[in-house]
């Protein structure tokens, strides 16, 4: 946040708002086509101020609570506020969120695949800003709720091409205060608020879903990556990567794939730490023996096959490191952690599924392009799981595994999405983040992972 946000007293620090309507609300603005969109809600003053704010709604679209918020801000500041209908009417029905049935989950997945990717709407967003400028607006701010924050987050990623003052509000925020900052700021700013905020304005906030319904991730680095955390001894292991808030009551144990520590997986740990406000640790289970060299996999020579077999026999057993995992869980709890999640990739996906037999050691699992999926592993699983397989995993076995969980008391919390266009390893060591499609799905799976953990662990 800009320091002047704290140091400038007076009206800007406390904008009054009109009375909030708690019953049926009559809109103060009107709809009209604008930019490349057929429906945009306009409310507020004329273009004489030269200032406008674009409000990007949540997954439920043009809801009265969000539109009332737009009216409040427009009236409080005397400037134009617009709410584009990026979904063109195709929003998620509130009745299916959070999903409680397989049909609900399928409907939401279909929505995400057809219209729910914020990047699909960037051209529409910029067409709106172009149209605003053509009508004489010289300063444009943007705010997003829940899904909308995913879009507004991208404004800085792509250079803030058409937005002077991008503001990101994750599901709830003190809107009259933040908008006042936008209206008077001379420099681009990004303000984020967590679910502790006391002035909820989006429809998700009113339905008490709040921030857990959507998690954004920071911009993905596609080139050389600089780790945000550090390596140190922990829980009996000589080397553990630790990143994020070490005072958080929530911790995630990230279990790498057969290739060990690689930049793509380290970046994933940093992403989860940032998105969840949690501590994330990645143990070096392979220790001095080390991971499988990427040059040896897949094996093409007898030497490669011998190397891999020796690795499996020495450090690569699916249950070899369970005691070390449980010791890490105990060490985290000894430091005040109350909820622990585990995410695993490939070999790590299999490992955490087995570790998940003990609900006293871990509370939730995410298995990404898991190795050696077996339907029988569902029998002893004791905690909720999200499974995100790639095209490389046996689809029938994955389905059978998930079906085996349907009688569990936590069945409604489980999540399953298959990434049919992605090869095995796309979110870890084999991620090619310079490939547009891989980058898109890498971002998507970490958003889903963070969202799942937030829903279970908070």
Task: Please provide a written account of the structure.
- By secondary structure, the chain is an alpha/beta fold.
- It contains 13 helices and 14 strands.
- It has an eight-stranded mixed β-sheet.
- Helix 2 crosses helix 6 (175-184) and helix 8 crosses helix 13.
- The longest helix has 22 residues, at 436-457.
- The protein is elongated.
- The model is unreliable at 1-14, 156-162 and 164-213 (pLDDT under 50).
Layout of helices and strands, plus pairs?
Elements (H helix, E strand, L loop, with lengths): L3 H4 L22 E5 L2 E8 L6 E6 L7 H14 L2 E5 L17 H13 L7 H13 L4 E6 L2 H11 L7 E2 L8 H10 L18 H4 L23 E5 L2 E8 L5 E6 L7 H14 L2 E5 L18 H13 L7 H13 L4 E8 H9 L8 E7 L14 E4 L6 H9 L11 E2 L19 H22 L1
Parallel strand pairs: 3-4, 3-5, 5-6, 9-10, 9-11, 11-12, 12-13, 13-14
Antiparallel strand pairs: 1-2, 2-4, 7-8, 8-10
Helix pairs in contact: 2-6, 8-13
Give the termini separation: 26 Å
C-alpha geometry: elongated
Instruction: List segments where confidence is low: pLDDT < 50 over at least 5 consecutive residues.
Output: 1-14, 156-162, 164-213
Number of strands: 14
Please give the share of residues in helix: 25-40%
What percentage of amino acids are in beta strands? 15-25%
What Rg is obtained from the alpha carbons, in whole angstroms?
24 Å
Helix segment tally = 13
What distinguishing features does this structure have?
alpha/beta, elongated, 458 residues, six-stranded mixed sheet, eight-stranded mixed sheet, disordered N terminus
